[in-house]
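Hi F.,

I've been meaning to write this up properly since the lab meeting, where we talked about keeping a consistent format for the predictions we share between groups. The idea is simple: the sequence comes first, exactly as it goes in, then the structure tokens exactly as they come out, then a line or two of notes. No screenshots and no reformatting. I'm using this chain as the first example so we have something concrete to point to.
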Amino acid sequence: MHIAIAGNIGSGKTTLTKMLAARFGWVPRYESVDYNPYLSDFYEDMERWSFNLQIYFLNKRFKDVLEIAASEDIIVQDRTIYEDARIFAPNLHAMGLMSSRDYESYSELFDMMMSLVKAPDLLVYLRSSIPNLVAQIQKRGREFEKNIRIDYLKGLNARYEEWIEHYPERLLVVDVDECRFEEDPKAFASLTGQIEEALKDKLGAL
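Output, unedited:
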């Protein structure tokens, strides 16, 4: 089974992935951030490195999805392959930080990959306001994230909302401005209860 955690930068995806893995004994899959060879360069010069960064992420996540599909474990994944193509790449293109030529090439590659994979059994979307995202980004103190632009985060948030509004598969939306699952055990218990309810038919069949 495949549970995927989606959300903007700083929304709490990695934290929730860790907590769900510990709570249920699920196998976690984390986003490649600390060892990404392009991320620091990207935040310094987004236009120069946008295509390289997105191709790197797409390659890594496509590999993850194929491995998840072949696994018999219950896997919880930090960020999905969809977010690269539906959120990040079009946002960069709209901001003039990725050329139309690069964006079209990227989109064609993504569409080919999608013909080979299926959607997660449950998508958990962590919805957050911009002030909360900024506070969380500052709190974790990653050096390469110090130069993230507010307009970049706003553009991502808008695209997330548009994507989630039309997402056709099983979905749970969590307002992380209100649901402080990391610091509030009752909030986390409520969230895990919602996840179990959303997956009860699949969990019951295991």
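Notes:
The first strand starts at residue 2 and ends at 7.
The CA atoms of residues 95 and 170 lie 31 Å apart.

If this format works for you, I'll send the rest the same way.

G.
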